[in-house]
Each structure stands twice: as C-alpha cells, then as structure tokens.
Write a structure and sequence with these properties.
alpha/beta, eight-stranded parallel beta barrel, two-stranded antiparallel sheet, 39% helix, globular, binds (5S)-5-amino-3-OXO-hexanoic acid, binds zinc ion, 3-keto-5-aminohexanoate cleavage protein
Length: 276
C-alpha cells in the first residue's frame, strides 16, 4: 500500500473558543499548531480562520496573511476552506481563492448540517471548480454523502479535470444530516470512488466526534488517507478531551505505521496530489 497523507484541520468554523480553550484561533496559535502537527507527521493543513473576536471570518487580508505565515513557518501544503461557516455568502467563499493557497476545499453538494443547511448549489460548485483551475489551486473535493461522489463524476465529465490533473476527495462522515461515520460507509465510498471517478483518484477520510476512530481505522485499511483535528473532534477518547491537534496527528501517524504504511511528508504529498 502507498504511503499515507495526514491532513490536520485544526480549527474549523463550528467549535467556539469559549467552550474549548485549546482551539487555535489567533495567527500565532495557528502557526504554533501547524509547526507541531508537521513534526507529528501532518503534510496538509486545512485552514479556517477566526477574527479578533474568535469568530469565523473569510476576511481576505487575514487569509492572505495566514497563507504567508504558514508558508514561512512550515513546508505544509496550505489548503484553505471555501466552505467557511454555513452562514457565509457564496461571493466570500469564492474570494478565498484570491489568497492563493496551494489547495482549497470544494464541497460537492448541499447537506443538512445539524440544525442548519450547508448550501452548495450546482452552479456555485462549477464556478468554484473552474475558478480554482484558472487560479492554479488544487481542489480537495469534500464528500458528505454518497451522492456527492456521483455529482463529482458529473462535474469532471462536464467541466474537465482540476488543476494538476489529479483528483483527490475527502470523506467527511458522521455529520448529523450526512453519511454516517462507520466502516461500511467508508468502504462503500471507497468502492464508489473506484467505480465512478478517474483511475488513481485518492481519498482521505475523517469521522466527526465519536466516529473518528472507526473512520480512521477503516480508511487506513482501505488504502485511504487521513484527516484529523479539532475541526472534527474535541474528544480524544471517551471521557478525555483532545489536548492538542498534534496529539491527533501523532495518533494518525501511529495508525498508518501500525498498518505498515509510511507517513508521507509534504514533498511526497505534493507529488502524489499533483501540486506543483
Ligand atoms: N464548516 C462547514 C460548514 C469545508 O471546509 O470546505 C463546512 C466545512 C467544509 O468545513
Ligand atoms: Zn472545513
């Protein structure tokens, strides 16, 4: 089996700093987290940023400063979220690309998201896909449900391959309203990747909350890659809170090594995902 990529998603848009103080929200906290996660084996950082008030923002100046700071402190592949928070308008989400990250997320369909709705209209998705290609940004297609994979097959069929020519998807499982976070769902999605998407398409997977471990272990066994971080879980195990994002990255690296797979460094990750 090939080496494994670890993506760290350290902050997200849903957890509040007041409820969970270890969450990195300032630029200094984010850079410190990035450095320690790289040491622990992460090679991609999936970034949501916060404002002075610790609330989610898509402010372009802050995003650009964040990309620059992460690039000077680490070799990590910098992936900005275009998903933002469920309340973010499409125009702000598209403008994220102007911060010139290496990668950006592109969610492949609308999904119920707890009590809210995470809107991803077809026309918006196609605009994002084409804009990423125009700007030389490599997408990570976010998959919250099985139909999102067939939607991606349709997108690639109608609008062509992304920048770099390689297709990489990320299963985000266990969101209330999306696909469940368990072993059969990971294997069903891995099977759908093989059936519907171009040969060589890679996938990573993350399970929200208590679904973290079954999703991680199944993805490792199925040849997939891993995403971990406080965006997805604040609990390390039953009754124990996560101490740091690096702790989650270390556990992911241990899981890959246990399965006899090497942990890919940023250079290996760039090569695999076609990031120039
Ligand atoms: N915060 C969610 C509404 C992404 O980063 O692209 C969307 C999300 C997906 O986290
Ligand atoms: Zn995200």
């Amino acid at each position: 089996m090939t080496g494994g990529i670890i993506t760290v998603a350290p902050t997200g848009a849903e957890v509040s700093k007041a409820d969970f103080p270890p969450l990195p929200v300032t630029l200094d906290e984010l850079v410190d987290t990035a450095v320690s996660c790289e040491e622990a084996g992460a090679s991609i950082i999936h970034v949501h940023i916060r404002g002075e008030d610790a609330l989610p923002t898509l402010d372009l100046g802050r995003l650009t400063d964040t990309v620059d700071a992460l690039r000077s402190a680490t070799d990590l592949v910098v992936q900005l979220s275009t998903g933002g928070a469920v309340t973010d308008p499409e125009s702000d989400r598209l403008r994220v690309l102007d911060a010139r990250p290496d990668m950006a997320s592109c969610t492949m369909g609308t999904v119920n998201f707890g009590d809210a709705v995470f809107m991803n209209r077809w026309d918006f998705i196609t605009e994002l896909h084409k804009s990423m290609r125009d700007k030389g940004v490599v997408p990570e297609y976010e998959i919250f449900d099985l139909g999102h994979l067939t939607n991606l097959a349709r997108l690639l069929d109608k609008h062509g391959l992304p920048h770099g020519g390689h297709v990489h998807v990320d299963f985000v499982l266990g969101v209330p309203g999306g696909a469940s976070g368990d072993a059969p769902t990971v294997t069903a999605m891995a099977d759908a990747v093989r059936r519907y998407l171009p040969e060589g398409t890679t996938f990573s997977a993350t399970g929200i909350g208590r679904t973290t471990m079954p999703v991680m272990l199944t993805s490792v066994a199925a040849g997939g890659h891993l995403r971990v971080g406080m965006e997805d879980t604040t609990s390390f195990r039953r009754g124990e809170k996560v101490a740091s994002n690096a702790q989650l990255a270390e556990r992911a690296a241990d899981a890959l090594r246990l399965a006899g797979r090497e942990v890919l460094d940023p250079e290996g990750t760039r090569k695999l995902l076609g990031i120039g």
